[in-house]
Amino acid sequence: MEVWEAKQKAIKVLEEKLEEEERTEARRDHHAKRPPRPCGITVHTGVGCPLACAYCYIYDMGFPGSVKPYKLTPLQIAYAIATNPYVAVGAWGTLVAVGSVTEPFLPETREKAVGYMRAIAEYLGNPIQISTKMLPPLELAEVQRGLDVLISVTDLEGRLEPKAPRPVDRLMAGAELLKRGISVTLFVRPIVPGVTDRELMRLLTAAREAGFRRVIFGTLRVTSGIAARLRAYGVNVMPYVKELHPTRQIPIKYPKDRLISAAKDLGFEVLPASCASNVRAHCQACALCRWGPCGDINKLRANLEDVMEYLEWRGYKHVDIEMRNLSIRVNVKIDRRDKIFLEQATRLPVETGRRD
Ligand code: SF4
Ligand code: SF4
């Protein structure tokens, strides 16, 4: 209920700051409607991207090769997220990932990206993470305590990212943020066979020397278009996929074990997913997916009385709940919205229906 009350409070505060038309536009926006995934809700700072990385999937999703800042103002984006019925608001609320389906720190969207993060931090307080291939601005140090910055790199030469800043400059920009006390994680994404693995040690060593301590390895997803573009760069993904599809992104089956051990040997903490880095940066915990649990699970103490109170307030009768193996078991069927909201509010899976 505490989380629900925080959500209502944030909505009220933001409503008072926005005009009627601004509220309507924000409520109609997909940020107000999309259910978050276990790893959180993604926030779009722009539409499209001109960087044309060879492995990028946004063009197959219909996004353009140029960028326009996203239409909502910072207050509107905070309001849209707060009104999203699936989202838990607050410091332990839904994880927020800024910069999906675009690059947030393009010159055209940089100001908007920082504005979005400031508004989310100030009015909602949810844990924020941003992922970039550009050089992140130093003002990030003032956005949120625990803000997590992912420096995204595929190899040290940037062979597949010809329009992005040089990877070595990205690492140096990350190092500057590290010096200012920000959480910065190396995001080796995606792992492209024959490119990332070819000189991985050089990349990891350079990152360690720059001060990076954490790394995530991200999987390459391919469509037929991406496979063709990669072929033009001399990369053949066919040994790693069974089929290709024009729009469906197929994750390649690439064994990461060798990469993970190389990183561990160099002293890196290897995290299973980007959201794990957000959780780690904010000293929190989460057990929402099979990659976890992440962080200190002793911090995952769902207040069952609160969960019960919320469900009864939502109109469910004869509710009985219990904790079992880092999940919450509810004896009655509850609708998807309540299930997702409770999962976001507790960071624990909610299993529903009759108990066995
Ligand atoms: S920077 Fe990101 S969004 Fe832009 S082309 Fe590269 S991978 Fe795609
Ligand atoms: S358990 Fe870890 S990897 Fe899974 S959603 Fe939570 S933070 Fe992400």
Which strand order spans the largest sheet, edge to edge or round the barrel? 1-4-5-6-7-8-11
Q: Helix/strand/pairing class, anyone?
A: alpha/beta
**What small ligands are held by the chains?**
iron/sulfur cluster
Q: What proportion of the residues is helical, as a percent range? A: 25-40%
Protein name: Radical SAM core domain-containing protein
Organism: Pyrobaculum aerophilum (strain ATCC 51768 / DSM 7523 / JCM 9630 / CIP 104966 / NBRC 100827 / IM2)
InterPro entries: MJ0683-like, rSAM, rSAM_sf
GO molecular function: catalytic activity; iron-sulfur cluster binding; metal ion binding
Short description:
One of its GO terms (molecular function) is metal ion binding. The chain has 356 residues and is of the alpha/beta class.
Task: Describe the overall structure.
There is one protein chain. α1 packs antiparallel against α3. The chain has helices spanning 2-17, 20-28, 74-83, 110-124, 167-179, 200-210, 224-232, 257-265, 274-281, 304-313, 336-346, and strands at residues 41-43, 46-47, 68-69, 96-98, 128-132, 148-153, 183-188, 214-217, 221-222, 250-251, 269-271, 285-286, 294-295, 321-323, 328-330, 350-351. The protein has eleven helices and 16 strands. The longest helix has 16 residues, at 2-17. It is globular and about 60 Å long. The protein is α/β, with parallel strands linked by helices and 356 residues long. The two termini are 28 Å apart. Among the domains are: 1-46 and 66-126, no CATH class; 304-351, no CATH class. β4 (96-98), α4 and β5 form a beta-alpha-beta unit. A seven-stranded parallel β-sheet has the order 1-4-5-6-7-8-11, sandwiched between helices. A three-stranded mixed β-sheet has the order 14-15-16. Strands 2-3 form a two-stranded antiparallel ribbon. Helices cover 34% and strands 14% of the residues. Bound molecules: iron/sulfur cluster (SF4) (2 copies). GO terms for molecular function: catalytic activity; iron-sulfur cluster binding; metal ion binding. Keywords: Iron, Iron-sulfur, Metal-binding. Residues 31-269 form the Radical SAM core domain. It holds the Pfam family Radical_SAM. This is Radical SAM core domain-containing protein.
